Each structure stands twice: as C-alpha cells, then as structure tokens.
Amino acid sequence: MPGSEDRLSALPDGVLQHVLGFVPPNDAVRTSVLAGRWRHAWRSIRRLRISPKDGWDRPQHLKDFLHALLPPGDHGPILEEAKLDFDGLVEEDDAHVQVWIRRILSGQAQVLNVSFIRLGNPPLVSRHLRKLELTDTALEANILDLASCPALEDLIMASCILSLCKISSQSVKRLSISGCDFLCDCRPRIAIPSLVWLLLDSFGGNVPLLGSMPSLKTALVRPAAYSSDCCKGGELGQCCGSCAECTGDDDHSGRCVLLGGLSAAVNLELVAHAGMVYLLGTHIFTFFRTKTLKASGFKLIKPTT
After folding, report:
1. d(CA 199, CA 220)
2. CA-to-CA distance for 211 and 13, rounded, in angstroms?
3. Residue 281 above 70 pLDDT?
4. pTM, two decimal places
C-alpha cells in the first residue's frame, strides 16, 4: 500500500538471496523493479533452478539471463546449488551450456543437477562440488575424469549416453549408473577406489571394467539384456575369456570384467536377464572359483525370465 513500510527491503542480504532462490529465475529478475534495494538482488541468488516449466518465451531470453547471472571474471558466482533442465531450451551441442556450467563450478556450488545437454572436454573442475547428478545427458571424452573435484562424494547418472573410456575419482563414495549405455569403442573403466556404495542398473553396451574398490560395502548390479561382457572369438563363436576384449587388461589373466572389482563387497546383489546367462555364466563360476569371498550378505539372484 502507498506509504506503508517496506519491510522486505529491510531484510538482510542473506535472507533476500535465500528467498529469491525459491522463485523461478524470470520472476526473480522482475523483482528488480520493486525498489532500489531489489535492483541487483537477483544476481546474488544462492539456488538456481532452470526448467522448461518456467515459461521462457525464447531460448535467447534464457541465454541473456544466464550471461547476466554468470558473467566472466576472476570471482565465481555465490551459487550453492544449481538444477538445470535444458529440455527444449537450448541446442544439444550449444557451446554456451559448457561455459555456464564451468562458471557455476568456479564458484561455491556444492550441488549440480543437469539434464538434456552434451558435455565433453575439458574435465570438470570444482573445489566445492559434493554432488553431481546427470540425466538424459551425452557424456564424452574425459569429462568424468574427476581428479579436479576433490570434495565430490556422490555421482549419479540416469539415462545417459556414455561415450567415454574412463570414469575416475579419488573421492566419490557413492556411484549410481541407471539406464545408461556405454557406447565407446574401448572397454570403459571405472576407477574409483573410494567407493562404498555402487548401483549399476539396466546399463547397456560394453560392460565396464571395475577397478579395485577395497572400501566397497554394498553393490547392486543389473545389466541390460543387450550388455556385452565378452567377445565371440572362441570355438563356435563363444567367449574365449582371455583376450583384451574380455578381460580389459594387458595380462590376459581371464578375470571377469563385471565381477572382478566387486570381491570386497559386504552385500552384493547380481540380477541377470535370461539372455545374459550366455554372457555371464562362465564368469560367475570363475568368480567363485578364483575369489575368496568374504561377503556375508552375498546374494545371487536367479536369471529373470
């Protein structure tokens, strides 16, 4: 009301920034006309959520907003959390997306959730990032070489295309890969020795080679029916079990690609489709014969029909 006291403008900066983090970005910008105190408040929000549901009229409006919120410079943004759903808002290979994400990570962001984009080189860099979630995203080259994200503990991927040869980190403790396809020409490797919890669910393409995970406590592995864990170079087109395509290493020791890195798990659940019996059967027996299993909670689920 005219002449009434503007109590909102009297709130501390931190409170305004917190409140605006729950407002759709385009509405947060509109608050700049409320009063002088609000003119630049939207540039200092702590939480950013981009969604096609926010009603962006044109992709260019979104680009203008993010370029203003994430300007280039030596000082990164103060965002603590960002959830970016670019479905229909940008082109899949839009170069601006990579710039925005790297500027977010150059600041204080601890949580990053990204959907419907393509990410490639160079690898991500962040001193503060604790949780990274990627959905419906194409991941290429060395983007998941996470050596420069020393605080990262949670890595979640769902419905992604993984055209990369390695996923590596020295800090990640929980890894979830669900409904993803490994579509690289190489045998992909997962090198995360700090893992304590692992989910590999309904993944297709080349089954990854799992490195040593001495701290692993719980793992659930459920390959898709079209996963490939072996070659067809043996007699009668069966798996030879010893070539680099099968073992993923250079000594041709014949160890199992899928199960070899899971021997330290305390609770291990393996679920295989009927079509995977041919691919996994000999490796399962090799696993039991060659590994000293200390897993008191180990459970092998019969192949599903």
Report:
1. 5
2. 47
3. no
4. 0.78
φ/ψ of 113, rounded to 5, equals: -125, 120
Helix axes 59-69, 95-105, angle to 10 degrees: 30
3-class DSSP string for 138-195: EEECCCCECCCCCCCCEEEEECCEEECCEEECCCCCEEEEECCEECCCCCCEEECCCC
In angstroms, the CA 259 to CA 254 distance is 12
CA-to-CA distance for 273 and 285, rounded, in angstroms?
17
The number of C-alpha atoms within 13 Å of 91 and in the hemisphere containing its C-beta is 5
Place of tokens 């019996």: 277
* Cα–Cα dist 235/134, whole Å: 41
Task: Measure the CA–CA gap between 25 and 33, rounded to whole angstroms.
Answer: 15
User: Rounded distance, CA 121 to CA 73, Å?
Assistant: 21
How far, in Å, CA of 195 to CA of 214, rounded? Answer: 8
Return the SS3 of 302: coil
Whether residue 112 contacts residue 101, with contact meaning beta carbons closer than 8 Å, is answered with yes
Q: Chain centroid to CA 177: how far?
A: 8
Nearest by Cα to 122 from 97, 99, 143, 107? 143
The pair of structure tokens assigned to 111 is 């949580």
Weakest-pLDDT range from 88-102, 127-141, 147-161, 169-183: 88-102
DSSP 3-state of 79: coil
Task: Give the separation between CA 243 and CA 241, rounded to whole angstroms.
Answer: 6
Give the residue among 9, 13, 140 at the shortest CA–CA distance from 78: 13
Cβ atoms of 153 and 175 within 8 Å: the answer is: no
